[in-house]
Structures are given as C-alpha cells and as structure tokens.
Specification:
By secondary structure, the protein is mostly helical. The chain contains 14 helices and 2 strands. A hairpin with a 5-residue loop joins strand 1 and strand 2. It starts with a helix and ends in a 6-residue tail after the last helix. Keywords: Membrane, Transmembrane, Transmembrane helix. It holds the Pfam family DUF3100.
C-alpha cells in the first residue's frame, strides 16, 4: 500500500468526527497565531534596489513562509519534534479552514470598498475594461507552455490564473482528468503554494514602473482573495497616503473579477486559447491532440 493511502487511513478517521477535529483545530490556530506574532515582530522589511526603487516584504508574506516551514514536509523532515506540533492532520484541516478565513476576508474587503464607493464609480469603464487583462496569462503563457513541451495541458494551465471558478469551469467543460484539467489543476496548485508570495513581491516592484497606483490596485484584484490582499497591502505599505483608495479599488476589482471573469473565460478566453493552440501547433509542427 502506498504512503498516501496509509496517511489517508490514519488521518481521515480522526478528522471525520467532531471530537477528533476540535483538538486539531485548536493546535492549528495556535500555530497560526504563533506564525502571525513572529511575522509581526519581524515587521515590514524594505529592501532598497538602488535607482530601481525598493521592495517591501509585508508581515503576511513572512507568516506564510513561517507556516510553510512548520509543515511536516519542510522542517518536519529534519526536526522530528515539529511533526508533533504540525502533522498531516493539521495540514489537511488547514485546507478546509481556508474557506472560513476567506469569508472573514470578504467582509473586510466589503467594508473597505463601501466608504470609497464614489471614487470607485469615478473610475468608470476602467474597472470593466481591466478585466481584459486576465487574457494576458494566456496570450503570454500559452506559447511559452507549448515551447516547453506542454500540449493540451497548456490550454487549461494558461486560460487564466486558475482559481476556483476556472477550476470548476474547466472541470465541467473538459473533465478534471483530461489534459486541460491537469493543466488547470497544476496552475491552481502552484498558485496555492507561491501565488501570494509572488504577487506580494510583484506589487512592490510594480510601484517603480510609474503606472498609476489606482491601476495597480485594480490589477491586484485578480480573483484570489489571498493574492489580492498580498498585492494591495504591499502597495498600501509603499503608498500609505493612498491606502484606503488602493484597498477599495483592489477589493472592488476582485469582486468584479469573480463575477465577470467566469464569463470572460467561458466566452472569450477558452475559445481564443483553443484557436491559439491550433495556430501554435502548426507553427511548432505538432499534431493537434
């Protein structure tokens, strides 16, 4: 029997009962509080980049790094006592706890957008047209994915940043075990692991490009609550005098992406990705799968 099956047998019975879950929940949240406190003690670290500008690494990113290090597949491999603090049970339960945390985050985003609604309305069509930016992942990513050897997986992997709505759409259209399904799942998992860290750092660098902060705030709302929070918080840290507006634009953009992004993917992105796939298959002299 594989290690995966053995883990499932030892973990699932415990997590399947209420009495079994509560002690693990308590331990999990103690670990999260400890990681958060450590991250806040570290604070925001600013790294100067000379004439280019600077990068601000916010506590949220440090807390993610600390939490990853606690897991049994990281430092737990070399420091055995850590597995008693954070075992596979806590890791499995954390996946379910994410949805609860996102609900709380959603409330915060709504309260951020509300007081600044007039400024958001003044942005006019910009908030709508910025949705076309979601096509950039495909226009840029699909040819690179195919050059690197991906076939139909490239369609699923690059049709968007592949969060939950895209995962559901591709699963419904092609099936999760299809090449497209494997592609979207791959991007989804990579996003879970590195997305928040990547966008938090990217936002810090983007300030130095000269692009208007409101445009960067809109771009932060890419349909993922955690990624949007990391990006917009990094922007707000660098531009504290525009903090409220940045958070409001980012929150509103994120909501709109969740609402309209699915239609954009269904009626524009996926058909365009399939057309591009056929074109690049001919250019690369590959048989279409």
């Amino acid at each position: 029997m594989s290690n995966t099956n053995q883990k499932a047998e030892t973990v699932d019975p415990v997590l399947s009962t209420k009495d079994g879950r509560w002690p693990i929940f308590i331990k999990l949240f103690i670990l999260l509080i400890a990681a958060s406190v450590l991250a806040e003690l570290i604070g925001t670290v600013t790294i100067p980049l000379g004439p280019i500008g600077k990068i601000s690494i916010i506590p949220m990113i440090f807390s993610m790094i600390i939490a990853v290090l606690f897991t049994p597949d990281a430092l737990g491999r070399v420091i055995e006592p850590l597995k008693k603090l954070c075992s596979e049970k806590e890791v499995q339960l954390a996946e379910n706890a994410i949805m609860l945390m996102l609900l709380i985050l959603g409330v915060k985003l709504g309260t951020s957008a509300g007081p600044n609604i007039l400024k958001i309305v003044q942005a006019g069509p910009a908030l709508i047209f910025q949705e076309f930016g979601n096509l950039g992942t495909m226009l840029i990513g699909l040819p690179f994915a195919m050059i690197l050897g991906m076939r139909r997986e490239a369609v699923g992997a690059t049709v968007s940043i592949c969060r939950e709505p895209t995962l559901g759409l591709i699963s419904e259209k092609y099936g999760i075990n299809s090449p497209e399904g494997l592609g979207v799942m791959g991007t989804y998992m990579v996003g879970n692991l590195f997305g928040t860290l990547f966008f938090g750092l990217l936002a810090s660098l983007a300030v130095n490009t000269g692009i208007h902060p409101y445009a960067l705030a809109m771009a932060s709302g890419m349909g993922s609550g955690s990624m949007m929070t990391a990006a917009s918080t990094s922007l707000a840290e660098i531009l504290p005098n525009m903090k409220d507006e940045i958070l409001a634009y980012a929150a509103t953009s994120n909501i709109m992406t969740n609402v309209t992004g699915l239609y954009m993917e269904c009626f524009i992105a996926i058909p365009l990705a399939n057309k591009m796939y056929r074109v690049y298959s001919r250019l690369l002299r590959r048989k279409e799968a």
